[in-house]
Design goal:
This protein has helices at 43-52, 60-66, 71-87, 96-105, 118-128, 152-160, 188-197, 230-235, 273-278, and strands at residues 28-31, 109-113, 139-140, 181-185, 200-204, 223-225. The chain is of the alpha/beta class. Pfam families: Hydrolase.
Length: 282
C-alpha cells in the first residue's frame, strides 16, 4: 500500500507577506470529540462490545452496518443507550476554552468529525463550550457515511470551508494532495482519516487512558500534544523557526521536541533536507 506524504505545514499565523511564499495558509481545525474535545471515556467502547458480543478486533460501526434489519436498529439502540449515559459524565479537555478563543481571534474555522451520534455532541457543546465561542461548523456525526478512518468526513468539512481547490471532493487517496487543514484526535482512526484526507494530523496524547503508546510514533501522526492549548504556541507567528540559522540551533532539533506547525521548507530554502525533515518527526 502506498504511503502518503507528510504534510508540509503552514505559514505562521499573522506572518508578514514576504515570508508567505509557497506554503499553505491554515483555514481551520477539525476536531474529534470523544477523547479530544472531552476526556476519554473508553469504558464506553468496552460496554458497547460487550452489548454487541464482539471482540476488540472488530470495528463497532462496521459490525453494526453489516447486520440485517431489525438487528441493526436494535444494535444502534444499544450503543446509543451507552453513549447517552456516558455523556452525562463528559469532562472537557484542559485548555479547550483557551484554544477555541484563540481560533476565533485568528478567524480560523473549527469543525467536528466524530463517530458518535448527535445527542452527545449537542450535549457537549451546550454544557462544556463557553457561549461566547463561535459555533463549530460543519459537525459530522454518525449519520455521515463513510465514517472515520475513511477521510470523507474531513474532506466534506474542508469543502464547506472552501479549502479544496475547485470545490470537488476528491475520491480516494491523493498522495500529494495537501489541505490547509489540521485534524486533531486521540485515536488511530483520527490519524488515518486526517492523513488520507491530506490534513496535518495532531495527536492529543492520553497514554494510560486506553491510547496505544505506539500512536505517538505512528507514521500517520505529524504532531503530538499533551493539552489542547499547546496548539496556540505551535500556531503563533513568532516562532523560533523564522529566526533559524546555523549558529543558533533551535529547540526543535532536539530529538524529544515537538513539531511546529508552520511551514519550513519554503521559507528557509537553504536549510539542508535532514534538518527540515526533523520538523516532521518525533
Ligand atoms: Mg476519540
Amino acid at each position: 500500500m502506498a504511503t502518503r506524504s507528510r504534510h508540509p505545514g503552514f505559514q505562521p499565523l499573522g506572518s508578514p507577506e514576504d515570508i508567505q511564499r509557497g506554503s499553505l495558509q491554515l483555514r481551520g481545525i477539525v476536531f474529534d470529540m470523544d477523547g479530544t474535545l472531552c476526556e476519554p471515556q473508553n469504558y464506553m467502547f468496552r460496554q458497547m462490545r460487550t452489548a454487541l458480543s464482539i471482540t476488540k478486533q472488530t470495528d463497532i460501526l462496521d459490525h453494526i452496518h453489516s447486520l440485517p434489519e431489525p438487528e441493526q436498529t436494535e444494535a444502534f439502540r444499544k450503543i446509543q443507550d451507552i453513549e447517552r449515559e456516558a455523556m452525562q459524565n463528559q469532562i472537557p479537555q484542559p485548555g479547550l476554552a483557551a484554544l477555541m478563543e484563540f481560533l476565533d481571534q485568528c478567524g480560523l474555522q473549527k469543525g467536528i468529525c466524530t463517530r458518535n451520534f448527535d445527542a452527545p455532541v449537542e450535549h457537549f457543546l451546550e454544557k462544556h463550550v463557553p457561549n461566547h465561542v463561535k459555533p463549530f461548523s460543519p459537525i459530522i456525526t454518525r449519520e455521515f457515511k463513510p465514517p472515520k478512518p475513511l477521510p470523507d468526513g474531513i474532506l466534506h468539512i474542508a469543502r464547506a470551508w472552501g479549502a479544496i481547490d475547485g470545490g470537488i471532493v476528491p475520491k480516494g487517496l491523493g498522495l500529494d494532495r495537501f489541505l490547509p487543514v489540521v485534524m486533531v484526535g486521540d485515536s488511530v482512526d483520527d490519524m488515518a482519516a486526517g492523513r488520507d484526507a491530506g490534513a496535518l494530523t495532531v495527536l492529543l496524547r492520553s497514554v494510560g487512558k486506553g491510547q496505544s503508546e505506539d500512536l505517538a510514533i505512528d507514521e500517520r501522526t505529524d504532531v503530538v500534544i499533551d493539552r489542547l492549548d499547546e496548539l496556540i504556541s505551535l500556531l503563533e507567528a513568532d516562532s523560533q523557526l523564522t529566526d533559524y540559522n546555523d549558529d543558533d540551533v533551535p529547540d526543535f532539533k532536539r530529538p524529544d521536541s515537538k513539531y511546529l506547525l508552520i511551514a519550513f521548507h519554503d521559507t528557509n530554502q537553504d536549510i539542508d533536507i535532514d534538518v527540515a525533515d526533523m520538523l516532521f518527526r518525533l
